Amino acid sequence: MLTRRELALAAAAAGLAGCAPAYTPATFPAVQSRQFPRDFIWGVATSAFQTEGALNVDGRGPSIWDVFPREKIADRSDAAVADDSYHRYREDVALLQGLAAKAYRFSIAWPRVVPAGAGAINQKGVDFYSRLVDAQLEKRITPYATLFHWDLPLALQQQHGGWANRDTARRFAEYANIVATRLGDRVKHFCILNEPSVHVFAGHVLGIHAPGLTDANLIGPVTHHLNLAQGLAIQALRAARSDLTIGTTLAITPSRPAHDGIAPLNEAAAKGFDAVWNGAFLDPLLKGLYPAQARGFIEPQLRAGDMEVIRQPVDFIGANYYAPAYLRFDLMSQAHIAPSDPPPNTARDAFNREIDPAGMWQILKRLREEYGNPSVLITENGCSDPFSDDPAIQDDRFRIDYLRRHLEAVKSAMEAGSRVAGYFHWTLIDNWEWAEGYRSKFGFVSQDRASSLRATKASYSWFKALAMTGRLNEAQA
Ligand code: GCO
User: Fold this and answer.
1) Which domains are present in the chain?
2) Which of 52, 71, 174, 195 is catalytic?
3) Strand (E) positions, 168-304?
4) CA-nearest residue, atom 10 of ligand 1
5) Crossing angle, helix 357-370 and helix 397-415, to 10 degrees?
6) What is the distance between the alpha carbons of residues 105 and 393, in angstroms, rounded to a whole number?
7) How far is residue 337's CA from residue 279's CA, in Å, rounded to a whole number?
């Protein structure tokens, strides 16, 4: 990922520079006002595979996640039931209403709508999303539909190589057209992809997510075909209807050099990671080109006209923010980049993610300064409960504190000129957290898995007051 020249430069600099400077935590200016605009969108985000269950019901086809080995999931669980939202979606919508949510970001499972990924449409799958959308509209909740939240139809993976195959992009556009023509009369807001960089790396390089591959050579093709799919899908949606608001959701992650080791080399590693993780999706969409450091492995995939397809005008950028990444120079790894730990003594959530609201501020600053200040929706942000069945967790003050601090960062960035139109909390109900299974709990609402009883946590009432007034309260001493 780093060029030889950059490595040589970094190494030379290292000889001069010596060890890393002392660590200074990032900060951001205090907010001037705690009042968000009246039209700010307060919402909640979920995804199909993590919540719906009903994997073999009403003609849904299998996805790559259906066959992902349970041995690779922390609690050996599967998502066969999850939140049972396929059957309980009315309860979900009632919870959204009780939360005073204005919007709901959910995802549509491609294999529920087109079971084999291409070809026959499953009307019962379309009908489910139709009911889900109608239920939201009845309660004046605006649906935000994500088209791809990692649940690729298994047939596309097994028979065609999934996202490594350019044809998958075309099939995705066909599916997007099906969604637009069936649901676009009522769904006006779309997120095309969810966190494609996570899907590339966790799914194709690290093997910890479906499709469970461990091949760094896939970074180029999978990245490019996801970008291409997104461009083609935006074109398909716009061709089907002219009244849609369209964006995409990226895991925009501040990439920081590890605090220990040789600073200039770590800085080069952080830059390299940033190029393939953030830049490889932001740049082609918003600038019409890949970052220099990503070009080497993208270029073999490029065909004439691709960059024009990818650079589609979007109405918003969806930004998911949880934590920064730390990178260090690693001579042994292929790209000389290895993940590192946050500096010592940084606060972490139960998921072991660093809690750093300044990272939220930084990504908004970056979008403002480097990418032409697009309209932004925070499409995910949230933290996990401790891994415990202790009922006291219902009193989740740590979540309230987390949200308050991240929303201060959002508001501070808005006061500096960022165009943030809304904030979607991850998530509504504790759900199936991919490789973590059911251990991680990010919800405003808990669910007892044996009885399916749902109960709101303290953060639910806190967020409700916020959504109703738009006023962010101060921390109690
Ligand atoms: C992601 C996904 C969500 C996760 C959430 C909590 O960002 O990984 O969009 O599916 O559940 O982020 O980890």
Assistant:
1) 4-469 (3.20.20.80)
2) 195
3) 189-194, 245-251, 255-257
4) 47
5) 30
6) 25
7) 16
Of 352, 380, 431, the one to substitute when testing ligand 1's pocket (max ligand atoms within 8 A of C-beta) is 380
**DSSP 8-state symbol, 25:** -
Give the span between the Cα atoms of 295 and 188, in whole angstroms: 35
Residues 6 or more apart in contact with residue 257 via CB below 8 angstroms: 20, 263, 266, 267, 269, 270, 326, 327, 328
Burial category of 445 from C-beta neighbours within 10 Å (exposed 0-12, middle 13-18, buried 19 and up): buried
Whole-angstrom distance, CA of residue 272 vs CA of residue 293: 7
Residue 342 to residues 258, 281, 324, 371, 412: CA-CA distances in angstroms?
7, 24, 8, 27, 24
Which numbered atom of ligand 1 lies nearest the CA of 351? Answer: 13
Neighbours of 470 (CB within 10 A): 14
Residue 257 buriedness (CB in 10 A; 0-12 / 13-18 / 19+): buried
The CA-based dihedral angle spanning residues 170, 284, 252, 47, taken in that order and rounded to the nearest 10 degrees:
-10
From residue 331, give the alpha-carbon distance in Å to each of 5, 11, 238, 299, 337: 15, 11, 47, 25, 8
Active site residue 195: yes
The residue annotated as part of the active site, out of 52, 267, 380, 433, is: 380
Residue 415 appears among annotated catalytic residues: no
Which amino acid would we find at residue 4?
R
Provide residues with CB under 6 Å of ligand 1: 47, 50, 194-195, 198, 251, 320, 380, 426, 433, 442
Given a contact cutoff of 8 angstroms between Cβ atoms, the answer to whether 71 and 420 are in contact is no
Measured at the CA of 194, the angle between CA 280 and CA 176, to 5 degrees, comes to 105
Per-residue pLDDT of the chain (477 residues; tens, 9 = 90+): 444 444 444 333 333 333 445 567 789 999 999 999 999 999 999 999 999 999 999 999 999 999 999 999 999 999 999 999 999 999 999 999 999 999 999 999 999 999 999 999 999 999 999 999 999 999 999 999 999 999 999 999 999 999 999 999 999 999 999 999 999 999 999 999 999 999 999 999 999 999 999 999 999 999 999 999 999 999 999 999 999 999 999 999 999 999 988 999 999 999 999 999 999 999 999 999 999 999 998 999 999 999 999 999 999 999 999 999 999 999 888 788 999 999 888 888 888 889 999 999 999 999 999 999 999 999 999 999 987 777 668 999 999 999 999 999 999 999 999 999 999 999 999 999 999 999 999 999 999 888 878 999 999 999 999 999 999 999 876
